[in-house]
Amino acid sequence: MGDDALTVRRLFVEANGEHPMTEADDAYVRAHFEPATAEQLELIAAGRLPLPGYYLSDETPMVADISACLAAAGGVEALHDWFLAFWPGHEETAVDEWATFLAGRYVCLRDLDPLSIRRRTRMLEQARAAVRALRTDPRDEVAQGALAEAVDGGLGVPGLDQLLLPMTAHDRLRFGGPTVRDLWVDAVRAEFHNPQPPALPIRTKRLTLRRARPDDSAATAAAFGDPDFVRHLLVGPQNPAEVAFTAHQRSQPEPPGEHRVLPLLMDLDGTVVGSVVLFFSGAGRTSAEIGWTVYPGWAGRGLAAEAARTLLDVAFEHYGVRRVVANLDAENARSAALAERLGMRRESARVADYWSKGRWTDSYDYAILRAEWEARRHTAP
């Protein structure tokens, strides 16, 4: 090992300590970093390039690819001044960030550059403020949106999930605890973006809203085999075997942490007469989409309205979403009328926007906000 390599190794240990690397750690590092060259080690030893992010178990120094930074800066000689320019008017912060950059401490970033460093800082600050607000008021819609953007990003805005690498057990040792991603992506999602189902079944005036059972296939086969019934649905006609398999799948318990949809059957005195469903979507799963079907022979009795009103209550009160939408085939006049009776507003009429059953189909988007639903409930007779 040459003098530069020895110097770099010593500096790395001073900054990070000595911690073991497992085979899994090695594999991860090889996937995200590259071996340092002799030229890079010379520049690192001179304090002009960042320290290696890792040393493999075979002592290979592994560095982040900063070629884009060097190209934009105009070379190693200009890298320092180019880097500091990202913090105009904040010289002390810029100097601190340069020191952290050189120490190889930003191994959490997918792209090691000052723009990603600034974005990480901004999103962490935004996430911390949002978490404080939501622990005081879980229905704070501004905090919900801010946290969702900080974690998952938005239009043209990368969130922490996009900015941060998974990292390793080795990182938890050298940083003395959970990684940034552990704390501000995984833990935040578990606490705030992990909806839990309500107690089931749900009783309405006439209906029992419940999960599917394998023996429901007989009741649903006739409906889903009817071309007229499925005409406005995304699925086509299904044979009894397909219906039975779908019923079996929907009757299975959800894996922990994977509650993304609430599909319920409408049970009227032991007879399955339709279904209603919530899909969670949007930033931080603060929105949901609602859908409903009423089986042939049961339309016109207000059953879909009864079930949908109850599920809107569940969406806003149990899950705490801020907005519920319904997307309808524009030819489905019954569903459009029901959406309007529920107080949902038509927000768009899309022309030939999706392909279904051999043709381009028009659609309507309806929506209602939590505040609108609450106001409607308070003024309802």
TrEMBL record:
InterPro entries: Acyl_CoA_acyltransferase, DUF6058, GNAT_dom, Ribosomal_N-acetyltransferase. One of its GO terms (molecular function) is protein-N-terminal-alanine acetyltransferase activity. It holds the Pfam family Acetyltransf_3. It comes from Nocardioides piscis. The keyword Transmembrane helix does not apply. Keywords: Transferase. It comes from the Bacteria. GO terms for cellular component: cytoplasm. This is GNAT family N-acetyltransferase.
